[in-house]
């Protein structure tokens, strides 16, 4: 992370904590919900299968920027499927950088070519060893690993949603992150039980065991892009929700924190680590502040 960018984020954080502001800093644009997979834990794919047009997404970028957002995510569906005439996701990332966003990340399932050096991070879903990942997402593990090997940059961060099917494979996926070229780090979430996926939720005891394992991996210097100081809050879901510093825009609609905010009771079972981390950070949690500074400077 560039020094001037870090100073801008630090200034925003100080104002938010001291003045108790609820302004957002991180925004996500859903460019499409079309996806080429049908994963067991996903409840938001192919509902409309619409590719939102470039001019609309461009206007959404400007709207978020004018709100003060400086960290931007592009998400799907499968983000790399997005196109409008001759434009693809790479054009959106370049446009976002030209507008002035300081960090631009893209979320993907990794099944398409990962030629996107302009992105600060490509957050790529990998949900276990080959057998388990393919059980959850279909037979895609080999394709994903091949795409990672062919990627032109080391800006890939693995993204694992821990659930009942893969909870025993945290170390396995962390090992892939540590040993594979082009992978910078790994980030974890707990499964958020959207309607129809409740069978995959973890108990408090299971979350505690997972966090203990991730903590041990951190001690062993695995490249983990999460904040250990937030784990106790994540285990028991006792962080403030929704996180007002994060917003999601989908087809012109802005939701505070995420799309799940409209589903009754789901905030109380949120498994998104970053939502907890940001909520705690901007509520003035000192250990989380220190952890985030150290982690972000290392991996972005």
Q: List segments where confidence is low: pLDDT < 50 over at least 5 consecutive residues.
A: none
Shape: globular
Reading off the top of the CATH hierarchy, the class is best stated as Alpha Beta
Helix content: 25-40%
Let me know the CATH homologous superfamily: Aldolase class I
**Secondary-structure element sequence?**
HEHEEEHEEHHEHEHHEEHH
Whole-number average pLDDT? 92
Beta-strand segment tally: 10
CA distance, first residue to last residue: 5 Å
What is the total number of structural domains?
A: 1
Describe what is shown at a glance:
This protein has 300 residues and is of the alpha/beta class. 38% of the residues lie in helices and 16% in strands.
Structure characterization notes:
- It is a single chain.
- The protein is an alpha/beta fold and 300 residues long.
- The protein has one domain (25-34, 49-79, 87-299): Alpha-Beta Barrel (TIM Barrel), CATH 3.20.20.70.
- 38% of the residues lie in helices and 16% in strands.
- The protein is built from 10 helices and 10 strands.
- The protein has helices at residues 3-19, 54-66, 89-99, 130-137, 141-150, 170-179, 204-219, 231-236, 273-281, 286-299; strands spanning 26-30, 71-75, 83-84, 87-88, 103-108, 121-125, 156-162, 183-190, 246-250, 253-256.
- The strands form 2 sheets. The protein has an 8-stranded mixed sheet with strand order 8-7-6-5-2-1-9-10, with helices on both faces.
- Helix 2 (54-66) links the parallel strand 1 (26-30) and strand 2 (71-75).
- Helix 2 (54-66) packs parallel to helix 3.
- The protein is globular and about 45 Å long.
- The mean pLDDT is 92.
